[in-house]
Amino acid sequence: MYFLSGWPRRLLCPLRSSERPFLIEPSAQRFYLAVLSETQISIWFSRPSVLIVSYIESGKAAAQFGFYQLVEWKPDDSMIAVTAANGYVLLFDIIGGSDEKCLYEPVYPKGARVKVTPGYKEEQCAPALTLEMKKPIDLEAPISCLQTLQEDLLVATADGYLHMLHWDSVSNGRRAVNLCTIPFSLDLQSSRGGPCLDLDGVHIREMEYCATLDGFAVVFNDGRLGFITPTANRLATDQLQGVWAADVSDGTCVAVNNKYRLMAFGCASGSVLVYMIDSSTGSMQLSHKLELTPKHYPDIWNKTGAVKMVRWSPDCSVVMVTWDCGGLSLWSVFGAHLICTLGEDFSCHSDGTKKEPLKISSMSWGVEGYHLWVICSTDGAEGDEKLQQTGILQFQFIKSALTVNPCTSNQEQVLLHGEDRLYLTCGDPTQAHSVSDKSPSRDSGSPVHRPSASTPLSQGLSTLLGHKHWQVVQIHSTYLETNWPIRFAAIDWSGQCVAVAGRRGFAHYSLYTRKWKLFGNVTQEQNMTVTGGLTWWDDFVVVACYNFIDRQEELRLYVRTSNLDNVFASVTKLQADTLLLNVFRNVVILFRADCSICLYSIERRHDSPNPSVSVELLQEVSMSRYIPHPGLVVSVTLTSVRTETGITLKAPQQACSAESILLNLAGQLIMLQRDRSGPQVREKDTPANQTKLLPFCPPVVLAQCVENVWTTCRSNRKKRHLMEALWLSCGEAGMKVWLPLFPRDHRKPHSFLSRRIMLPFHINIYPLTVLFEDALFPFCTVERTSQIYLHHILRQLLVRNLGEQALMLAQSCATLPYFPHVLELMVHVVLEEEATSREPIPDPLLPTVAKFVTEFPLFLQTIVHCARKTEYALWNYLFAAVGNPKDLFEECLMAQDLDTAASYLIILQNMEVPAVSRQHATLLFNTALEQGKWDLCRHMIRFLKAIGSGESETPPSTPTTQEQSSTGGFEFFRNRSISLSQSADSIAGGKFNLQKALSVPSGPSSKGGERWCKDSDSAENLYIDMMLWRHARHLLEQVRLRDLGCFSAQLGFELIGWLCRERTRVARIDDFVAALKCLHKDFLWPFPVIPACSISSPLKNGRCRPVLSSRLLKSQSADSLLNSDMDTTPPQVTTANHSWLDSLGAVSKELDSASSHGGPQTHEAFLSPLINKGEECSIGSATDLTETSSMVDGDWTMVDENFSTLSLSQSELEHISMELANKGPHKSQVQLRYLLHVFMEAGCLEWCVVIGLILRDAGVIKQVVGFLDSPEVPAETVQSIRAGLKAVDLWASSDCLGYKPFLNLIGPQLLKLLEVPVEQVQAEAFQPTGASKLSDPPLLLPRAEELTAAHPLPSDGPAGASARPLDDTPPQPEEQEPLEEGSYDCTLS
């Protein structure tokens, strides 16, 4: 098909003239174009597009003859006829110059290919021509139209006569026919012998001769349309008869299509009527109309004016139309609309008025249809008196290779060719190179990946369609300048090799090497011309050509990998001229000028050193009985498609042999099948070389108005419906597919069921190929696209009650990535048609389609996606067919498909009352909470609030960004760390205040909680809070602390406030051992193991240096080393007689003093006494992590340096490594620290003990025991902790000895719990009396103000979750915080 490419060129006439040209007419071969103005005739050459000669009439002759009006060429380009206004026909001889004389010659650089071919200059350079007028012929009446025949010139005059002149007017006089003597009727059968009196005073306005119909299509000046045909071979006065086109009286112009035997008549209404001649009655039958539709051109469709001109392309595949109001429009031969310039938005003049469309006075197609030459009409206001250069516009086109070389119709590639370039759809050749390329040097030098031979090509084609880029290949200039124009082009099956044929010879190109191959011997190139087309077979170019030396038609095969030379060609002589050629597997099919079809077999020969083939004639089939003219055959195809009764799913081998011939005869698709009615010989009974091919049955007509045919020579057992289908492109009628019907499960086929069915459907694109396995049409205009066709086929099968076939076809395609879209499209199209129909539908299809879609697991998604993309008014019709949306919602919940359920919720919100929506939303919300679908939970919260606040008319908009949760500590999933630093203002004076830590807000929402809507006491918020509380209670009861933390962080749940309220209820622990085990499992935390050497471990015996051990336990973290002074001065170690507990004893004293002296500085707390002169250090909060670099090798080298300084023993290193091995994942440690902080804030001391146990953090246990002194702690809590620790001790003694060292370490705390309450107050009794003289670690951390500026905290966050002052938080949990995998940075508010 034809597509506009680029901007039109403007060709300026070198001669200045005051006359404007108004007519352009091409010669028979279109190499020359005659341009006519009032007293001047100019001859232009097509390539280069230059003016050759201009003949200007003298003033005296112009006065005698009148102005020029029409022009016509003699078929051999030797003469030209011009009509003048006073009734004269002026004949001009065109005389060529000598061989040496050319107007324009190309100039070549030195070293260019030498041209040795005879006649080169005449073919390639613009020749020098002269015009000589012969004796004028006076017809004594104004001339209305002019038409050339082979040796005659037919002239119609305004007095109602047809004059037949001989081109050589001297030797033969003229004959005239009066129109009134020609009998006209509606068909030739009822034609009467008498004259037609209706034509009195009527003359022919325009006419054109159709060679294949052997007659004239005529338009009379009263607007009637007719067809005049001679009854005998020669035109004579008494041997003409005519037929009318019924009920038409507004004809303006006409153009005929010789290949398809069509007559296109332009009408004053703006439409073009395309007629054909009925072969049985001879009457004119309307084939189709070409007209703009109000759907696509609402502003202009009825304002175009009359049709000005109609022009068929040289290959007869498209027709160009222009109107009085201007503009160009292109249609395919059977009415598919391709281009219309009237739909464009034209620019404006400087004064703001809109520019009119381009108005055209005349147009003509150039050579091979690559150009459209256009003469624009101008208004008289522009001042015609001044001399100026007139211009001709030249529109450039690219066209599908199928239009003239329909031999790639069994492939899945798209190839377009322009005047000097090719457009290919195939992707990068480095990704999809043909496996048949055997060149080892090419392979070794190529670094790209090449697919294996088993890779199906269509997999690559599916990916090709995703992009809209064309692979543009420039045709080799050396070949082009000698052999322009390109007449044929073909692409191979893999899409990697292209061949083109011009005037002489051919050339081919490999996309993989990006190189052209031309004939090395130019004489060989110039001694052949391609006549019947060219195509690819494996690595061979198959060419049907004419040999000028032997004057013989030949079939040649050239191997691609060798040089392009006749030495490497396999040549087979043919008996007649070849018109068409095609390849099916190993068979070449030729259609010849004597209307016969020849089948040749091709076999690769292995006996010769060079790759070669042997070609043998298999069969000849004469078609002369069925084909009236060989030029009417558009394409010939060999295929495995057949209609026999034996077609079953068990017989895929039938797809391997060439079963049928398909002929496109002027748009009529004819099928010839093998005749199996005679006695059948089994294949194994006959030798391979004596197998006789079966004859063909008489032809059967499959379809009308066919433009293109596609089959495939591949087979696929899983997709036999598609692979054995026959595809037809039928112009405005859309697509047709001839689909095979298979019995299911190898059952016997029904006798009443036909073996194939023709399914028509409309598409919005013009297809250029069919991807059989991908169920797609690729397509091109300026921009490439593709369209799915599968839903059209499924729908047509369902309309015909062939649901079983539709199901088999759909299941074979269910693996396609866009299969859900196919189902959705089918539902949507049927719904739109039926629900918006004004007439009642007797047999609606939607229930059938709905039942069909339920067969697939995507049913629920398909229906809801279709509904969401359809207007609300159609929902009732849709759900009446597919089922109640409430039932579908519940099915989604049962299938755990929550996202689809959420879509159904929006449907319910619009179709049901708010109470129903709330009920279903609550169900979905609870399910989403249980499954941890946090995004969905957030949307559901907004949805429920919208229902309550009266916004239920519209669904809530989906937020685009994730809301930052107020308890950001669980956002470590985003690879950031927690930063809980506070400003100095938040640090309150006074001693440690337990009451403050345990005080909580009483309401569900804090005063500044902006997460919910402003009226936080509303019933909706309470309703939502109740569900959140219930879920949190459920999680805590099941000891799912990790899920509880995620739930709090993702949904902004006020965990601390809620825990405070639940402190004495669900936040209690009944079984400490079970809770401990659950935490180990939940956080993937290993149970501690006791090393074999631990019996004599110096750490166990208390002889280890406490600062050393505490610091090295933390040595995984880079910041512990950076923020200590270990790398500058070795620490002053305390005396060795202190126990492990001694190093921890001073901490509680620090708690009392830190806040009173605390400045804004914070630093990390170590497991060592932090004693200096003024005790001027403040302890950070529970999870006061600072940003550090991630763990890298450099951090470990620091540790190594310190090892050398500290000189550890082997047993100490073993113990330290065992301690590190007993820790869980770093992320789990961060999560546990955060939860410890939350439980400590909420005063849930039992949970603090359990987390302290799993972290084996003695400081936490000591701190909790210290808290038990407070009178506010209930006695039940004290008893629970005491009993729980006893239970853990018993369990550890029997089942988990790894906990025993730690339990021994916190032995004093356990004893303290068992003592009388009065003695528990003496916390200072456990502190060491002598303080160690440790050097004070430098405060390298940023100040709190800096941290707060870097991570601003919300000033009015929820009270329960707000940051606590530093003196409220335990210092210890920072001790063993390894920061391994990237830094973390989250603000906890």
UniProtKB/TrEMBL annotation:
Q: What is this protein called in UniProt?
A: Protein RIC1 homolog
Q: Where in the cell is it found?
A: Membrane
Its predominant location is membrane
- Mind naming one GO cellular-component term on file for this protein? cytosol
Q: Region labeled Disordered — which residues?
A: 431-457, 1345-1389
One Pfam short name: RIC1
Keyword Membrane in the entry? The reply is yes
GO BP annotations of the record are: intracellular protein transport; retrograde transport, endosome to Golgi
Q: Biased composition, Acidic residues: where in the chain?
A: 1374-1383
Q: Which UniProt keywords apply?
A: Membrane
Q: Which residues form the RIC1 C-terminal alpha solenoid region domain?
A: 791-949
